[in-house]
Amino acid sequence: MPLSAVDRPFIVMIVIHRLIRMTTTTSQVNAVLRTPPASPAAAAAFFSASLAFHADVSDVAAALAAEAADGTDPGFVVIDSRSTASWDQGRIPGALHLPTALIPERAEQLLDRSVPVVTYCWGPGCNGATRSALALAERGFQVKEMLGGFEYWVREGFPYETWEGPAEKAADPLTAPVAAADCGC
Description:
five-stranded parallel sheet
């Protein structure tokens, strides 16, 4: 049965719609791959740079523990960039207190430019360590930001100090291995 002139555009539109639906359905990519991964060379450059800018809480803790155990110099100084009230609430043992706002006037007096600095603030929801790292870098200091901040220091079970003295909490099994010295990564 031949198609009338009125039916032809309608049928063509249905065929085009089905082709588009088939093409989109078969070529749709999930959200993970919607933006393709970088080339291996670009990924290596990015992740290498990331390690140059960031330090892991457990790596910082291990270096500081070695220093405490055998006097091995970790080769860096830790800066707590938070307020005095936050510092009093809890801090990493041996950290220097240098709030971000005071970096312009006090960094030169407290720090040696030849010694790398590791900054921290409250945790992943706070960018205070990033701001303090920027302020220090702008003044010529080598600097890394400690990922996870004070929150993850405590959550991973490392000892800390408060205005009342030393403190420690059990490691959170969602952030640190329960029965191992480190996570193995």
